[in-house]
Structure formats: structure tokens, C-alpha cells
Design goal:
The chain has two domains: 6-100, Glutaredoxin; 112-216, no CATH class. Strand 1, helix 1 and strand 2 form a beta-alpha-beta unit. The protein is of the alpha+beta class. Helix 1 (21-32) crosses helix 8 (208-216) and helix 4 runs parallel beside helix 8. The longest helix is centred in the C-terminal third of the chain and has 25 residues, at 165-189. It has helices spanning 21-32, 47-53, 90-100, 112-126, 131-140, 144-151, 165-189, 208-216; strands at 6-11, 37-42, 60-61, 67-68, 73-76, 85-88. InterPro entries: Glutathione_S-Trfase_N, GST_UstS-like_C, Thioredoxin-like_sf.
């Protein structure tokens, strides 16, 4: 795409499609709002230096006060070609895109509080049991130079098929927790079935809550 638009910074892997859930959330919003954008692919060891170079704000802070640089990050030149706006943090970016490009809204009027609770559930409860399963799979799909950086020097963890003893039991327990959360979420979404066959979080209107969930899936 033309460089006159939005640049999304994403993490490279060994598969052709994007894979990081938080970055997928922004990609889905960009596509839904039909905003022209291009992707810059980074290996994990490149992320901090690249984000510092383009003036991206830190997405968090360590306990000792040092900044943390994470993706997603966007650079928007649609609004001002002379002074591009650089943003980090998935929720900050989503709020910005909605405020700046309100067409095809992802926050219907009066829904922000409920959507915020839903997204919090997805991030803090629904995803948590998935991590012991997703992290090893993610590690396997990263380029070699990113693998050690991703696991921060910890030993690589194998998939359930290669585990034995206590590790296998822990893996099976993780899957049971995942199933429990999927069943609970299905029961919640099923409550919309009687509302004119609604199938998404807000019934029939696609919203930010749906992108948060679909990005994980």
C-alpha cells in the first residue's frame, strides 16, 4: 500500500499470516474501518530499538522504572503528513482509531463500559488458561533469532505430545481450564440467540469486544 496511510508494526514469524493476538485486534479494526495501511515486520530483538527510533511511547514500565516497548504500534500519516502520529498500547490505538475515524463505529453509543468489562474478561480470564498451550506453539513459529529473545533465556517448553509425567498432567489440566472458559463464553454469547439471531457480543452490531475475542481465536 502507499506510505500515505497507517503503518502497523507487527512481529515476524515463520508462517505467512500474522499471529500475535493484540496486533490482530488492531489489524481487524483497520480492515473493518477500511483504512489504508501497510505492515512493517520486526523480529523480537529489533522491536525496542525500532520503536525508540520512530519515537513510539513506551507501552508499560518495569518495577525499576525502565520503559517497556511492545507491539502493536501504529504510525498515522493520514491526518498529518508533516508530523506523523505514533501510538502504542492496543487499547490506546483502538480508542484513537475510533475517535479519529468514526465511520463504521466499534463503540456504539452507551456501550463502552460493558465492552471494557468484556475485553477485560477476554484478556485477564479467557486467555490466561491458554497461555501454557499458546506460548510453546508461538515459540516454534518464530524465526531462530527471535526464539531466545521470546523466552527470555528460559528453556524451551515442548508441546503436550512430547511431555511426560507431571508436565503432561499439567498440560492436560490446562486444556480442561481452556474448555471450561470456552464453554462459559459460549453460554454467554448464546444469550443473544433469542435477540433476532444475534451472534456477536452486542447482538448484531460488530464492536471492539468482538475484535478482542476474534484476535485471540
Amino acid at each position: 500500500m502507499s506510505t500515505s496511510g497507517i503503518t502497523l508494526y507487527d512481529v515476524r514469524s515463520t508462517v505467512p499470516q500474522p499471529w500475535a493476538p493484540n496486533i490482530w485486534r488492531i489489524r481487524l479494526i483497520l480492515n473493518y474501518k477500511r483504512l489504508p495501511h501497510r505492515t512493517v515486520w520486526l523480529d523480537f530483538p529489533e522491536v525496542e530499538a525500532t520503536l525508540r527510533a520512530i519515537g513510539a511511547p513506551p507501552s508499560a514500565q518495569k518495577s525499576d522504572g525502565r520503559p517497556v516497548y511492545n507491539l502493536p504500534v501504529i504510525v498515522d500519516t493520514l491526518r498529518s503528513k508533516t508530523a506523523p502520529l505514533v501510538l502504542s498500547n492496543v487499547n490506546t490505538i483502538a480508542e484513537y482509531l475510533e475517535a479519529t475515524y468514526p465511520a463504521r463505529s466499534i463503540f456504539p453509543e452507551g456501550s463502552r463500559a460493558m465492552q471494557t468489562l468484556f475485553v477485560h474478561y477476554v484478556q485477564e480470564i479467557f486467555v490466561r488458561p491458554l497461555l501454557p498451550i499458546l506460548v510453546p506453539l508461538t515459540h516454534q513459529r518464530l524465526p531462530e533469532r527471535s526464539q531466545a529473545h521470546f523466552r527470555c533465556g528460559a528453556p524451551a517448553v515442548g508441546s503436550g505430545a512430547h511431555l511426560g509425567g507431571a508436565a503432561a498432567a499439567q498440560h492436560d489440566q490446562a486444556w480442561l481450564a481452556v474448555k471450561e472458559q470456552f464453554n462459559f463464553l459460549a453460554s454467554v454469547l448464546d444469550k443473544n440467540q433469542s435477540d433476532r439471531n444475534g451472534v456477536v457480543a452486542m447482538g448484531q452490531d460488530i464492536t471492539y469486544a468482538d475484535f478482542a475475542l476474534c484476535a485471540v481465536l
